[in-house]
Amino acid sequence: MSKLEQVLILEPSGELKFKGPFTEVVTSNLKLNNPTDKRVCFKVKTTAPRRYCVRPNSGVVEPSSSINVSVMLQPFDYDPQEKNKHKFMVQSMFAPEGGIDNETMINMVSDKMWKDADQTQLMDSKLKCVFELPPEALQNDLDAAKEAKEVAAVPPVKPNIPKPSPEAKRPVPQEATVAVKAVNVGSSASDSDMKKVLDECRRLQAEVSKLQAENAQIKDDGLRQRKATPSDNTQTFTTEFAPVEQRSAIPPVLYLLAALILGFIIGKFIL
């Protein structure tokens, strides 16, 4: 069964226009005309109840009279490129028969009455909301929306962190590691050789000192023998002791060996 045709005449009939700017409350007026000889109850609904304030949002229209409804749009950030899907619906039905005054009738127009009503007796009209801006304000909003999108499209700046160079990532060559190990081993070996050379030098110095002492002792013994024997035998004793004195002198080989050892020590320190 089809619904009843709306008996109320709405002005405007198809859309509610709200003219910006929308930085403050914008009001659009809706006029409900009752051309019949009966009382008509009405109720105003919207798809965006938090965005609008309707006064009155329900009531009774007397026969052959009208009533003005104020629809107030709350302030918001208007985006001209956003599609508006807000709608309003005006429901109506004939008031119950009987001698009921207006105050009592208004109190009766409650949610419970609308729920308990015969749905086949309900009438409704729908209106869509239209947002309008003056040309200058519209252009400003378009420019602001365009600028906001451009800012959003700019990628965030990443910090310029220098990448490590390939040389920093390059592993240490194996030859360098081997060379370091060889230097360490060489140092240990040179320390050991140095200790041996020093010990050898001490031993040679001790031998040289010993030979010098023996040489001095032999000289003293020769002098005593010369004093104790006649002068004619001096040549004989001198001839006999001469080879002994030559044998007891420091051999040149020892000087050569000492020079070689000192050269080896100096070379080790320099290298």
Automatic annotation (TrEMBL):
Residues 194-221 form a coiled coil. The keyword Nucleus does not apply. It is found in: Endoplasmic reticulum membrane. It is a single-pass type IV membrane protein. Pfam families: Motile_Sperm. Residues 7-132 form the MSP domain. Keywords: Coiled coil, Membrane, Transmembrane, Transmembrane helix. GO terms for cellular component: endoplasmic reticulum membrane. The chain crosses the membrane at residues 253-270. Belongs to the VAMP-associated protein (VAP) (TC 9.B.17) family. PANTHER family: AT11025P-RELATED, VESICLE-ASSOCIATED MEMBRANE PROTEIN-ASSOCIATED PROTEIN. This is Vesicle-associated membrane protein-associated protein B-like isoform X6. It comes from Branchiostoma floridae. The gene is LOC118417170.
